[in-house]
Amino acid sequence: MATGRRPIHASIDTGGVSGLTAMDSSSPPVRRLSPGQRWISLAEFLVGAAIVIGHNVYHVIPNEVPILFVIGLISLRVRDGGWGVIGLRWPGSSAGGTWAREKWARGMWMRTILIGLAAAAVRILLSSLVVDPVTAHFWPAAKGPSGFEEITGHWMVALRWLFIVWTFAAFGEEISYRGYLVTRAADVGGRSKAAYWLGVVAVSVLFGYGHYYKGPAGMVDSGMAGLVLGMAYLLSGRNLWVCILAHGFIDTFGVVALLFGWAN
Fold this sequence. Notes:
Strand content: under 5%
Oligomer: single chain
Low-confidence stretches: 1-10, 16-25
Order of helices and strands: EHHEHHHHH
């Protein structure tokens, strides 16, 4: 490894739609949940956690992301009436006229992209300046996803990875973790602000276990990434597009850095 180049694999969080409704500038509405609905949500969250651990730690079930993705979208559609509850909504249709709608939508997308970029920058800097130096005192460096070492100097390999990180990782993991599991964890506490924040913490721990293959240092790093993405989700008014874009930006940075040999 050349001097001055730091491992980039910890920044790549590759783990393992049509029909979107309208997005406005406010958070998704919060509805009152009955005790029975809370118990069902707790059961869903525990099953989701078991799926994450079962695949990544014990390897007794297939990859958790497709499973949680399908279960989550079905559950949110059946129990909540759609995917807008997790912030997976299209911007612009709540404005008045066509011109006003288009102008407002452009503003919302720009805000979403900027928050996503800021969250990605925070995650990358925290990994480089805090997590990597601290975990290096206790554990070996985090392992990268299988095949990541083939990216350097190979454009077609890099393009294949970019496809993976923008579909499986950015969309799949964010809908599964920040969207579905955070919502079901928050359900248990009645979807209060505190419940959402506690849900983000709990799901960040699961997200760390979702990257068990990276080793202890990588799990801590991925857990931190989940926490940053979860904070961005809540601070943006539960706009899941912020998380999807931030996740994609983070992994794209990692792929590009590996492609050009800026990191190993």
